[in-house]
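Hi all, long-time lurker, first post. I run a small reading group and we've been trying to get comfortable going from sequence to structure in the token notation. Rather than ask abstract questions, I figured I'd post a concrete chain and ask someone more experienced to write out its structure so we can walk through it together at our next meeting. Sequence below, copied exactly:
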Amino acid sequence: MTEVPYDERGNLLFYVDGGGSYSYLEGDPYRLAYSMRPNVAFDATLTLDSMRTGQSAKYLIWRDADGHHYPMFISDLTVMLPLVTVRRGVVSGTWIVRKKGQNFGVALASDD
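-- Answer (accepted) --
Happy to help. Here is the structure in token form:
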């Protein structure tokens, strides 16, 4: 997957369709405009923000130091936890976006 959806504020979106995206953040309008950006690994320290329930699954929301939000699949959390230290809900690493079905989420990037 070479491109992934972000809203105009830099938040990774969990689900999009041809007509727009669906916000998971409280206070946002339900549908948002979005743009596709290159899917490149990035270094960030993320803080656990919340957990949400989508149409098909529960997922976590992480927030970076600049206030950008990133959803994460629970299955990617279970892969991440044995590999890194999470202290008081904060974790640092190199991240990449993955797609499962029609949904997008951040995951710890592999070393290879």
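A couple of things your group might point at:
The first strand starts at residue 3 and ends at 7.
Residues 2 and 39 are 5 Å apart (CA to CA).
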